[in-house]
Amino acid sequence: MADISQLKRRTRADYAYILEYRTRWADNDMYSHMNNSIYNFLYDSVINTYLMENCGLHPASSPQYGMVVHSHNDYFASISFPACAELALRVNRIGNSSVTYEIALFEKGHEAVKSVGEFVQVFVDRGTAKPNPKGMDATMRQGLERILVQSRQSKM
């Protein structure tokens, strides 16, 4: 992942997929900003929304699913109800059975990034919960490659 100074300069244009989320009163903590745990909830949601819409994931029945094996987040500024968050997603790396996502949270109507997180998923077989030696299936890989940073840069 990039260093903090690079992450603070992220813009929506750095990401290939954006999903809006209307914050809820319950997302705020006692300090009137969105609780840290909500960020992870939102990051997981934007990833799974993308996987369902673009990669053939059917959570209840797909033979493979992504298991989060690493996550972290860097916070730069707060957001709070009743703001609308824009969750921006890209893939920084695809392995045989793993994928590294970068997710940025922006507030609609504001340019500065509020936070940038990283999730690493390993795609495992539903029956064994272990990575398939053949890796992730082709439909999943093709969908993830559409938002892979290197593939976007090579098309410019």
UniProtKB/TrEMBL annotation:
Question: Per UniProt, which keywords does this protein have?
Answer: Hydrolase
* DNA-binding in keyword set: no
Pfam families given for it? 4HBT_2
Keyword Ligase attributed: no
Assigned protein family: Belongs to the 4-hydroxybenzoyl-CoA thioesterase family.
GO MF annotations in UniProt? fatty acyl-CoA hydrolase activity
Tell me what this protein is called: HotDog domain-containing protein
Q: Where are the transmembrane segments?
A: none
Native organism: Chaetomium fimeti
Classify the source by domain of life: Eukaryota
